[in-house]
Amino acid sequence: xxxxEPSSGPFAHTRNSSVRIMYTVLLSLLPATIFGxxxxxxxxxxTVLVCCVVAVLAEYASLKLMQRRSAACMDGSALLTGLxxxxxxxxxxPMWLAAMGSxxxxxVGKQIYGGLGQNLFNPAMLARVMLLICFPVxxxxxxxxxxxxxxxxxxxxxxxxxxxxGVTAATTLSGLSxxxxxxxxxxxxxxxxxxxxxxxxxxxxxxxxxxxxxxxxWAIPLSFLAGxxxxxxxxxxFAPTTFLSLPAQIFSGxxxxxxxYIATDLVTSPTSVRGQLVYGAGCGLLIWLIRSFGxxxxxxxxxxxxxxxxxxxxxHYLRPAIFGSRSVAGK
Length: 331
What we know:
By secondary structure, the chain is an all-alpha fold. It has helices at residues 18-40, 42-65, 77-87, 95-107, 123-134, 136-139, 180-188, 200-212, 219-238, 246-251, 255-262, 273-293, 300-318, 326-329; strands at 154-156, 162-164. The protein has a two-stranded antiparallel ribbon. Helix 1 (18-40) runs antiparallel to helix 8.
């Protein structure tokens, strides 16, 4: 049995507060979110709004029940959880399902552990896995992008209300051809998929902004993409008809979103650089294994949750030495 010992945190003076960090991340996600709404129509806007509003309301209700400061529901963390969940959902999901997932993310994924900074698992990915296991049909029903046609999924019914529907098709991970044209469309975001995961270009731009603002560290995104890319390169080299190529693996599904926004969660990832390198590489390798040999075409959420569980163990063995300790002094 391993006894976990408390270790020194990475304390540093900075102008960033948790609120500033949350809203900066939200701002960096706006281009990819807006592009997803542009691609999939107003139904996707409804999904984003439902997830975000329900997340904030669930946070408010939880804080109220625990007799804590309810105004903390506007610190941006609940809003970010709701947006990340919405971006990982198909644009055609029923609204009751989006609301259920958002409430689950906040109540079970976050508040049941004690609130902000104390959750073991990434709340948005925990909710996505729950929805995928419980509602596999609804969660694998992807709409075909039809840019500039905001009425493609709106049907007028006699009573004057609007009813949403959608045309669905396979995604790149579930069987489309991997031609250079497909890779190009995956990078710019014209392939089918989840609401906010399709444009790797915009997600990369947002991730670079977070790196520039020093909100995230380079270790996790780099090791994440290397852990996914290296086995992809080898697998495709030996069996090109069986394994996706490196660009297809990197630019499809939620890989880019996972590398820059999901795996880099400050609460659920290791604190040391060495630990983050191991953690990111583990996420990438698990994604490749799940995509290549598992029953699900996508594996980002599963991989991140598994490595979330391993994060305390990684910190235990790879934590940096405390200045002035025996290991530093050579005693």
